[in-house]
Every structure is written in C-alpha cells, then in structure tokens.
C-alpha cells in the first residue's frame, strides 16, 4: 500500500494548508504592474467646477480700490478644483483654477492674492472648529476635519486637530514667513490661471471618500489669520460691504467651493447673529476593479488547484 488512510488524510490537510498560505502570500505581494500604473500616470480622484463671477462673498462685497487689486474682480474667483494621485511616485496633485492670477508683490510661487484653506474630513474624530479664527465662517458639525492645508504665494502649511494654534513656544512669531507647519516637500507652480501643488501622499493619508471644505480669501500679512478684512466703506486695502452688516460675523471668505449656482451667496449672507455655516463637498470613493479582479482570479485559481490535488489524492488512496 502506497499510503495508509490516516497518512493520506494528513497529506491532504498539509497540501491544503500550503495552498492557503501561498494564496495569502500572493495576495499580499500583488505585482507592482497590477497595484499601480507602471507608467506612473495621474489618476483623477475628484474634479469640481465653481460658478464664474462669484468672487464677492455674500454677493455684495467689492474689491479694495488700490491698483494692486486691478481690475477689482476675478483675482479670487475660483473656477475649478481637481485632486489627482500619481500612481508611480505616490503623491497628490492639487490643481486650482482662478479667473485671473497676478503677482504685484513678487511672491515666492507667482501669485499674491489668493489665500486657500482646505479642511479634509478623512476619518472618525477630528475638529469641527476652524484651526484659527479669521475666515469668519463655521463648519458643518457633522463633518469634522482631520487635515488642514493652507496655501499662500509664500508658503504651504499643514495642520492637524492635535496642533495648538496658539502655542507660543512652538510658533514664536505666528505672522512670520516661516512656521513649524511649513511643508518642505511641497512643490508648487503657477501657469496662466492655474495653481498646481504636489504633496507626498504620506502627508495627507487617504483622501478618496473624504469630505472637503475649500475656502478662498484675500491674503493679507497683517490680517487676522492672514485674511483681508471687510469694511462698511470703500478703502484701498479692505473689501467693501455694500450693505449694512454686522462686521463681527461678516465672512472674510470671498469664494468657496460650492458647485450650485447662487448657493454661495445665500449661505454666506446668513450671518446676522452668528457665522454662516458651510458644508463640504464629497470626494468619491476610489474604485479599483483591476485589484478586485486580480484577487478573485487568485482565489479561483487556488480553489481549482486544491480541487485537482484532492481528486488526485483520493484517486491514489482508492488505488492503494
């Protein structure tokens, strides 16, 4: 007899365990050509458009009068935003389109006026409060943020809810051009009306499926949290609110990512007794059918192989 019945059963069990172990190993070691594009192309995670000509906050803000703000429109008019992920070098690309970009103050990155704040709700927990007061808006309490990215023509900074915004030991001069939150690995460039920012993925974590607030104000190195202020009269350096408003709650956000026509004006105008509340947009969940199909094929292959081996062993046992 080639094998006893008990020996045959042990052999079957050993073969199955080896197959199962090798199957898990193959799944864990998915070839690079399957898990990511070998060409290293950019994969679109989200694309949004924003209404044209709405760079007036609640609908009745006018630009400052000084020549550096000429033509007194379009400088803060967000037109579109896209988020992409590079599959080869593992970084995110943020791309902001504005109606017009100018650089009268010779900034580091080629744009002087936009101050861009992004808040990402990527996981449970976090904060529903702004990192610092200045924008004069409130966030939807249902969507707390876990990553806060801010961009000006001079720096790129990244914060988390655990950071203390007023830690004077950590940040001795909060209005300085350098900060402990500066992202040294950031790569930023401008072309036409586009601002392009590349950040290592490890800095942001997973962003697909998250919620995003995108706020645009006017950069002011002396403003509260760098936001240019609002006045009840025309001036060279502040925005003019052409209606009688409570300046304590008047939003300093001039445009924000809100795809519905007219919704921004209605939402930002609601600040009689408190800050206007804004809601985020949704970054779609990333679907990866190639990876899912790969694992399905691996599973089917090993099940088929297991069935063949079991049949062969049963035949040998029968013959013995």
Q: What's the structural blueprint in terms of helices and strands?
A:
Blueprint: H1 5-28, H2 32-35, E1 42-49, E2 61-62, E3 78-86, E4 91-98, E5 114-121, E6 138-139, E7 147-151, E8 156-159, E9 187-191, E10 194-200, H3 201-204, E11 211-224, E12 230-231, E13 239-241, E14 255-256, H4 263-268, E15 277-278, E16 281-282, H5 289-319
Parallel strand pairs: 6-15, 12-13
Antiparallel strand pairs: 1-3, 2-13, 3-4, 4-10, 5-7, 5-11, 7-8, 9-10, 11-14, 11-16
Helix pairs in contact: 1-5
Q: TL;DR?
A:
With 320 residues, this protein is of the alpha+beta class. It has five helices and 16 strands. The radius of gyration is 28 Å and the shape is elongated.
Describe the structure.
The chain is an alpha+beta fold and 320 residues long. The protein folds into two domains: 5-30 and 289-319; 42-282, Sandwich (Immunoglobulin-like), CATH 2.60.40.1190. Helices cover 22% and strands 26% of the residues. It has five helices and 16 strands. It has helices at 5-28, 32-35, 201-204, 263-268, 289-319, and strands at residues 42-49, 61-62, 78-86, 91-98, 114-121, 138-139, 147-151, 156-159, 187-191, 194-200, 211-224, 230-231, 239-241, 255-256, 277-278, 281-282. A hairpin with a 4-residue loop joins strand 7 and strand 8.
């Amino acid at each position: 007899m080639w094998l006893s019945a008990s020996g045959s059963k042990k052999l079957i069990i050993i073969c199955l365990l080896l197959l199962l172990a090798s199957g898990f190993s193959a799944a864990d070691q998915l070839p690079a050509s399957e898990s990511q594009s070998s060409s290293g192309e950019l994969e679109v995670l989200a694309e949004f458009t924003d209404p044209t000509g709405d760079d007036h906050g609640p609908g009745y803000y006018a630009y400052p009068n000084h020549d550096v703000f000429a033509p007194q429109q379009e400088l803060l008019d967000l037109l579109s935003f896209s988020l992409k992920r590079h599959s080869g070098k593992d970084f995110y690309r943020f791309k902001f389109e504005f109606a017009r970009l100018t650089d009268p103050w010779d900034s580091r990155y080629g744009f002087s006026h936009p101050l861009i704040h992004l808040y990402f709700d990527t996981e449970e927990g976090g904060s529903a409060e702004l990192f610092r007061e200045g924008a004069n808006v409130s966030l939807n309490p249902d969507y707390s943020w876990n990553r806060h990215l801010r961009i000006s023509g001079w720096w790129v900074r990244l914060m988390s809810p655990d950071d203390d915004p007023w830690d004077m030991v950590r940040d001795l001069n909060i209005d300085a051009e350098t900060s402990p939150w500066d992202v040294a690995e950031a790569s930023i460039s401008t072309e036409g009306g586009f601002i392009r920012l590349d950040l290592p993925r490890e800095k942001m974590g997973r962003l697909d499926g998250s919620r995003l607030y995108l706020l645009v104000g006017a950069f002011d190195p002396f403003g509260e949290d760098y936001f240019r202020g609002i006045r009840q009269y025309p001036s060279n350096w502040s925005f003019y609110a052409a209606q009688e408003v409570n300046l304590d709650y008047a939003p300093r956000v001039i445009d924000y990512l809100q795809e519905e026509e007219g919704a921004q004006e209605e939402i930002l105008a609601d600040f009689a007794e408190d800050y206007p509340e804004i809601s985020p947009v949704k970054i779609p969940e990333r679907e990866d059918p190639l990876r899912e199909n790969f694992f399905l094929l691996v599973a089917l292959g090993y099940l088929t192989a297991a069935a063949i081996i079991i049949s062969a062993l049963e035949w040998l046992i029968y013959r013995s």
